[in-house]
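Reopening this ticket.

The earlier resolution said the output was attached, but the attachment link was broken on my side. Pasting everything inline this time so it's all in one place.
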Amino acid sequence: MKQGGRIGTATVGGRITTSGDHLTTVEIDGRLDTLTVTGGIHARGRTSDAIRTGSGGPELSGIESTAADGQSVTTRRAE
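Inline output:
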């Protein structure tokens, strides 16, 4: 999601996975109130992150996130 965007609720009834190197599987720069991903968010490539979110990101504690060679969750501070 791009900066300035807004979504109330997003639901994925499976998993979100990338396997390439130097990628981010899910990036949230706008406002997302609720995110549900039943199969989790996974980054399998070298130096790849599963989730990058800004200060307007949703609560992620209920979502499984893994990164084989990167960060599971990276949160950027507001500028």
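Reporter confirms the inline version is readable. The CA atoms of residues 52 and 74 lie 5 Å apart. The mean pLDDT is 92.
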